[in-house]
Amino acid sequence: MMHEVIICEKPKSAEKIASAISSNVKKMKSGKKSYYWEINEKNKKITVLSAVGHLYSLSPKNQRDRVYFDLEWVPAYETQKGLAYVKDYISTIRKFAKNADKYIHACDYDIEGTLIGFNALKYGCGNDSVSNTTRMKFSTLTKKDILAAYENQIDLDVCQVDSGIARHIVDFYFGVNISKSLTEAVRKAKYKFLPLSAGRVQTPTLNILVDREKEIQKFIPEPYWLIKAILENKSEKDDIVADHVEGKIFDKERVDKIFENSQGTDATVDKAKIKETIRKPPIPFNLGGLQSEAHTVFGFSPKRTQTIAQSLYTDGYTSYPRTSSQKLPESLEYNKIFKQLSKNSIFKKHIDALHQKTKPNEGKKTDAAHPAIHPTGIIPKKLDKDYEKIYNLIVYRFISVFAENSKLETLRVDLNVSKEKFFFKRKRISYMGWLNHYPFRKLEDDFFPPLNKGDKLLINDILLEEKETKPPARYNEASLIKELEKRELGTKATRADIIAKLYDRKYISGKKIEVNQLGMNIIDNLKKYCKNLTSEELTRQLEKELEGVMADKITKNKVIQDAKKEVSTILDDINKNTLKIGEGLYNAYQESKIVGKCECGGDLIIRFSPKTKSSFVGCSNYPDCNIIYSLPKGSEVLTNKCEKCNLPMISFGRRKSRQITCLDSKCGVDYTKIKEPEIVGKCPECGENLLKRQGRYGEFIGCSNFPKCKFTSSLEDLEKKLSEKEDKK
């Protein structure tokens, strides 16, 4: 009897693949946590085995080497804590894949998925298995796509395998060796252990944020004036606010002259023109587009969106999310997907209104491996609230790309006020089109006052508004991913992880990303002593070479050797300036831990006790000053100060019942209980009060109707929105 082994990426995928191939499937347990699936047919036995992501990791062959260039693949549980469960999966593959007649690689069709399956075959099933392997290629885990991939197997793409191997080795060379060298520099300079992290893409990403931080710090605000005419509006209760045509005016003499010229007269309509603009439907989501939209609409981090999208794919509800494509090929059979989605009565109303349009509006970007993200047609029975939001976002985007254009009308009214020119604009949707099917866009619905050339409008007031120019905006996670994509740094699958690592290392903080002193100092030191590591050009070049391996234009070994030379140059630069770099990094680390001033004049610093394995706040003048404040487990030191003793406040406890109190437990002030939150406005989503709250990143605005309404905003964003609203008036 022929024995066929199928290697899958995760247990859930393995179960779906096994069930799609045959209805006669047995689920078997091996070890404590590992499962496999058996199919017995007349002349063939099929064993479906699963990995759990990467089963094997790179490790130095000799841990005593000064530089780790000689690497080998070892079981992941040998190099990373908390992966003991991986042992069962490797044992299961070794046990049930041995001496099979044929092997099928059925992991996700991308570089990481290909490498996961390849290593499972090579090190779990034996070298001979690779030469006897075919590949299943699918973009959804639906029965139709799985069967099509099983019945139309393709050759294993060796270039894709080599690209994955090269990428991991190159990233190890940069990340592990350089991080190790920086940590060693601190040890030599200060005899202290300070875990530091650097990387091929991570460091240039941090450099982008540091450059923006320095722009903001160096920014000098410049005063300017806006001149507005407040006009009587007989058609509405609210006045019409018209702006002077010169907009921001930086010359005070010019401002005074305009203000003087505009007094004591009415406004005359010089021109009233309505312009119609066609708005095409949105384009299908790729991963970056989905992450950006989910951040804008729901406030989800890119990492959160990516995790949810991957889960929806694994459950069979949506297509593979790690794609660059903005196109939907006809082979998707749109009508069948619409038919299945129509089983949901809400989706059906939108689909029935599409006027039989069969061609989607598409973007320019393509991906050879996968189409744009789309629903499979399988409707979930029950989803967690956040998962439901992302699923609905994908479904409504899919429907809307097939819909008609929408139309926007813009009214511009030009006014003469004595010798000066003013204008105002109004916008309204004249034809909804695709907007009927995509409930995530703000709809313009301004009233158009009936005005014609020569009409007179009474001026109630002329206002002068003095403002200041603002520094460049800080990046948030979504805008940073867009920036990395624009600069060709990282990949669609890694960008969110890179940003998450910068947060984990405490180099950055806040939703509006701020770089702390440690992050700033790392970049300053590296720029001064080893510029290549912060170089975007080097990272881009290596990325192009890795893509060249995929396209069979350059060998894996050539890319690895090039990376080895670059890392050696960077390490030489660090070694030449070890003590200076180590001292600078340690001092910056100490500064980043300062949370306030002690009564003796020293700095209050967050420290860690190896004995109690807990953090505390102590004085920098120890042992002369032995003041200590304990920190509850999981606590965060906040930027706000206690009104009674001026020490920092801390938050601690579970997420839903988090307490805010003074760092000094003897102070006895519990801000959670005694201080009423400040009301700053009305919620735009439910109309309840907006409250100023305290979070781990400082103050933010939240709805008083939480958890029913989860609207939040930064103080900066709310002030901007209110300012724009005032400008519009």
Helix and strand arrangement:
Blueprint lengths: L1 E7 L2 H11 L3 E6 L3 E7 L3 E7 L5 E5 L10 E5 L10 H11 L5 E4 L5 H15 L1 H5 L1 E3 L7 H9 L2 E2 L2 H33 L11 H17 L4 E9 L8 E5 L7 H10 L5 E13 L7 H12 L3 H13 L19 H8 L3 H8 L32 H16 L5 E12 L2 E12 L24 E2 L1 E10 L8 H10 L8 H10 L3 E2 L4 E2 L1 H13 L6 H15 L5 H21 L1 H15 L1 E4 L5 E7 L4 E6 L8 E3 L5 E6 L6 E5 L6 E4 L8 H4 L4 E4 L6 E7 L2 E6 L8 E2 L1 H14 L1
Notes on the protein architecture:
With 729 residues, this protein is α+β, with helices and mostly antiparallel strands. 37% of the residues lie in helices and 23% in strands. It has 21 helices and 29 strands. The strands form 7 sheets. A 7-stranded mixed sheet has the order 2-3-4-1-7-8-9, with helices on both faces. A 7-stranded antiparallel sheet has the order 15-12-13-14-11-10-16, with helices on one face. A 4-stranded antiparallel sheet has the order 19-20-21-22. The protein is globular. The mean pLDDT is 89.
Task: Based on the model shown, name its key terms.
alpha+beta, 21 helices, single chain, 729 residues, seven-stranded mixed beta sheet, seven-stranded antiparallel beta sheet
Bin the strand percentage: 15-25%
How many distinct beta strands?
29
Structural class: alpha+beta
Radius of gyration: 30 Å
Unreliable residue stretches: none
Biggest β-sheet strands, sense, barrel: 7 strands, mixed
Mean of the pLDDT scores? 89
Short description:
37% of the residues lie in helices and 23% in strands.
